[in-house]
UniProtKB/TrEMBL annotation:
Species for this entry: Noviherbaspirillum autotrophicum
Superkingdom, natural source: Bacteria
Signal is among the record's keywords: yes
Entry-linked PROSITE patterns: PROKAR_LIPOPROTEIN (PS51257)
Protein name, UniProt field: Lipoprotein
Signal peptide: 1-26
Alphabetic keyword roster: Signal
Record-linked InterPro entries: FApF
């Protein structure tokens, strides 16, 4: 079916992208969503061609947390008390598959961020706010997929991803008073990060379903102006059930571990943590060449270092097309 070919192409493009940006929690609350939208389709078969994916994320972080406990704003004293961060991220991913083994993708995020915290200055509490819409750090990721040698009645795909996060996002954003935003709030880290990952996908034709497992590790290769982001490891486990030829029901478990940031401009005591989320969703083939999808993400476990802003939920919607 043409719809099945669309599904296969969309997943192929997603597979070469690796994991999309994960939650980058920090004391200020800057974040991307950990939902993996690469496996919204029924098949992982590869086919030469291109896929364009446009994804919107909404993450509103209003809950200060220490360890696994919610705390009030200012309950644990800091130089400044974090109040709220609204993250609206638009991610565009172009993926090209050269053949059944090799592919390449480029992901460019546009970060729309509103942040408020209370600064303590000479006994006064001074609200400080930043609002900006900027290009974030671009990712270039390759994919190598191994030949399928499994059960032909349960076709599968195994591969690895590898690439770089580039320092394309600015690190000098300031508010109207000329105050620089915290480094973790900036649209970019200023560092070049190595990315490596692996994935496995299997189709279950008899039950009209498929499942996947995927993992990724990210490590900054340098520091920039006194800041180096902590290493990240993410793992996802997902299942898709074909309700109809066009409609798919999706569910994922998303796990993330982030190490503390380092450097003179970092806040190591208030960065890093461990996170587990449940992400149900739906995908729908609008036509032979276009698919839409959506996820609702709910945290199951959040354990942060120091005091950090967290979100009680996140939303992801997107559209993918083959050409």
């Amino acid at each position: 079916m043409k719809v099945s070919k669309l599904f296969a192409a969309t997943v192929c493009g997603g597979a070469i992208a690796g994991l999309l940006p994960s939650f980058a929690f920090a004391s200020c609350g800057a974040a991307f969503c950990t939902v993996n939208s690469n496996w919204t389709s029924e098949s992982a078969a590869t086919e030469a061609g291109s896929v364009l994916d446009l994804r919107y994320e909404y993450v509103h972080q209003t809950q200060p947390r220490s360890g696994t406990d919610n705390v009030g704003v200012g309950e644990i004293h800091r130089h400044h008390d974090e109040v709220s961060t609204v993250n609206r991220n638009l991610l565009m991913t172009y993926s090209h598959t050269f053949n059944s083994e090799w592919g390449l993708s480029v992901t460019a995020p546009i970060v729309d961020r509103d942040h408020l915290h209370i600064h303590h200055h000479n006994g006064e509490q001074v609200p400080e706010q930043w609002n900006f819409t900027e290009l974030g750090d671009v990712r270039v990721v390759g994919r190598y997929q191994l030949p399928d040698v499994g059960n032909p009645l349960k076709p599968s795909a195994t591969g690895m991803t590898f690439g770089l996060k580039l320092p394309t996002g600015r690190t000098t954003m300031a508010n109207e008073d000329g105050d620089l935003a915290e480094r973790t709030l900036q649209p970019g880290t200023g560092t070049t990060d190595a990315i490596i990952g692996a994935y496995y996908h299997q189709k279950l034709p008899q039950s009209n379903a498929s499942w996947f497992a995927q993992a990724q590790y990210q490590h900054a290769l340098n520091s920039h102006d006194g800041f180096k982001p902590g290493d990240q490891f993410g793992a996802d486990l997902g299942y898709r059930y074909g309700v109809t030829d066009q409609l798919g029901a999706l569910v994922q478990l998303n796990f993330l571990v982030k190490r503390r940031d380092s450097g003179a401009q970092a806040e190591p005591e208030d960065s890093g943590g461990r996170y587990l989320s449940l992400s149900p969703g739906l995908s729908y083939a609008v036509s032979d060449n276009v698919q839409i999808y959506g996820f609702f993400q709910k945290p199951l476990y959040q354990n942060v270092n120091g005091v950090q802003l967290t979100a009680n939920r996140a939303l992801v919607v997107g559209v993918s097309g083959r050409f």
